[in-house]
Amino acid sequence: MRFTIKNGILILSNTLEDSLPIAKIPTIPQPQINPNFAYNRELQQLLTGKQLLLDDIPFTLDEIQTHYQNGYVTYRQPIVYKGKQPICARCGNKEPQWFATFPCSRCEETCLYCRHCLMMGRISACTPLLGWNGPVPDTIYPTKILEWEGTLSEGQTVASNQVVEAIHGNQEHLIWAVCGAGKTEVLFAGIEAALTAKKRICIATPRTDVVLELTPRLKAAFPNITVASLYGGSEDRHLFAPLTIATTHQLLRFYQAFDTIILDEVDAFPYTVEESLQHAATQARKTTSAMIYLTATPNQKWQSECRAGKRAYTTIPARFHRHPLPVPEFVWCGNWQKRLQKNKLPQNVIDWIQKRLRADKQALLFFPHIPLMEKALTILRRIAPNIEAVHAEDPDRKIKVQKMRAKEIPLLLTTTILERGVTFPNIDVAVIGAEDTIFTESALVQIAGRAGRSKDYPDGVVTFFHYGKTDQMIKARRQIVSMNREGVRRGLLDL
Ligand SMILES: [Zn+2]
Ligand SMILES: [Zn+2]
C-alpha cells in the first residue's frame, strides 16, 4: 500500500508518482479525535496497547483508514532510518544482515523487510504498525480481586511489600529469590494492588512452559479477572485483559500497553541473548510504569549494581520450608572425557551413582553435551537398564520427566535443559564436567537449586565433578553460601 499527505492527513493512494511507502514518509500526522465518530468496539479491543500489522487483524484497510482519519487509529512507521541505517520499529533490529528485500505487490517497489521478527508476520517498509488512540475498553473489576488464602513466609512478606510499593510508585525493583523460595506468591499482593488501581499488568517470561504453568495458578488466585495467556499459537491472541501472562516474544505485539510489567527469569534463555526481547519489554511498558524483575540468579552486572546500591532489590534468601540451600561439593574426577572415549566413567562418579542406586535415592546427572551424555548412558545402563537421558530436542522429554516424577526411573541424565523449572521431591544432583563453559554461575546455582526443594525432603546432596575448578563454580558456591548466611542473619532459617 502507498500513502500521500493531503490536507494534513495521510491518505491511501494508487498513483505511483505522488505517493510513497509509509517508511519513506518523514512524519506521520495524527488527526484529532472526532468525538462524534462511532468507532468499532472490536477494533478498539484488538488494538489497545498493541502494534499490529494489517495482516494480524480481520479488518479492511478502508475501515482502518476511516478510524485513522477520525483520530482513533495510529499509523507508525514499520522501519525507521537512523541516517541510512534501517531499524525495525517492532523488534529493534538494526543489523543490516537481518534485513532483506523482495518485489512487493503492495507498494509496487522493491520493499525492505525485517527478517529478525519474521515469525511474527512480515513487517516491511510499506506496512504501517497499527495502534489505538481512542478510549481504552471498559473493564469491570470485582470488589474482591484476590481470592488466594495462603500465607507467606517472613522472607516472602518483605519482598511482597516491596513489590506493592514499587508498583504504586512506578519504580523498577528486582526480587532476587533463591530457587524454591516461592516467588509466584510474592506477586499476588502486587497484582492485586495494580488491579485495584485499575492498572493494566503483564507477567512476562522467556519460556512458554512457565506461561502454561502460571496461567492456572493466576486464574485460581484471581478468579473474577480476565486473564490473557499468550504464547505462540495461543487462542487469547486478541483478548483484551487487565492481567496478561505472556512469553517475552509475544511482547513484540504490544506498544505502551502496561502500567506494570513483571519480568520473570530475566536471566533465562533466550531473553539474555536476544536484544529484541529486551527491546520488546521496554516498548510494551507505558512511559510511566513499574518494572519488577524476578530471578534466582541475576547476572554479574546486576549483582554488582545491587552491591553498589545502584539497583533497587530485595532478596529472599531462604526457602519456604526454612531449611538452608544445599551447598555444592567439588569433586575432582580427572579427564572424564578421555575416559568416556574409552567407554569408561571415572570411578568416583560410578561410586556416587551406585550409592544412590543402592539407597533407592533418585538423582539428576547433568552433562555439558549430548554425545558425551549418550555415551555415559550406554555405560550406565549396564548397571541399571532403566536409566534414561533427556535433552532439548528429545521428543520424549515430557514423558521422561513424568516417569522421573512417578519414580519409574532411578537416574535421569540431562543437559542444561532441566536446569530450571522442574521439581522432583527427593533427589540428589551431580554435574559431570562442571568446568565446561556451558555451566555458568547462573546455570550452576539453578542446578544446585533442584535439590532439597520439598519440605518433606529439605536436604539433598549436590556434587560438581570437575577436571579443574572454574571461576563460575566458585562464584556459584559463594552465592549459595552467602544466601544461606543472610537467611541465618535475618532469622529465616531453622537451624
Ligand atoms: Zn511494499
Ligand atoms: Zn523486526
Topology:
Blueprint: E1 3-6, E2 9-12, H1 41-47, H2 61-69, E3 73-76, E4 79-82, E5 85-88, E6 99-103, E7 110-114, E8 129-132, H3 154-168, E9 172-177, H4 183-196, E10 201-205, H5 208-221, E11 227-230, E12 243-247, E13 258-264, H6 275-284, E14 285-295, H7 300-307, E15 313-316, E16 329-332, H8 336-341, H9 347-359, E17 362-366, H10 370-381, E18 388-390, H11 397-405, E19 411-414, E20 427-432, H12 441-448, E21 462-466, H13 471-489
Parallel strand pairs: 9-14, 9-15, 10-12, 10-13, 11-12, 13-14, 16-21, 17-19, 17-20, 18-19, 20-21
Antiparallel strand pairs: 1-2, 3-8, 4-5, 6-7
Helix pairs in contact: 3-4, 12-13
Bound molecules: zinc ion (2 copies).
Question: Could you describe the 3D structure shown?
Answer:
With 495 residues, the protein is an alpha/beta fold. Helix content is 29%, strand content 21%. A seven-stranded parallel beta sheet has the order 11-12-10-13-14-9-15. Helix 6 (275-284) links the parallel strand 13 (258-264) and strand 14 (285-295). Helix 3 packs parallel to helix 4. One zinc ion binds at residues 88, 90-91, 93, 114, 116-117, 123.
Summarize the structure.
This protein has 495 residues and is of the alpha/beta class. It has 13 helices and 21 strands. The N and C termini lie far apart (70 Å).
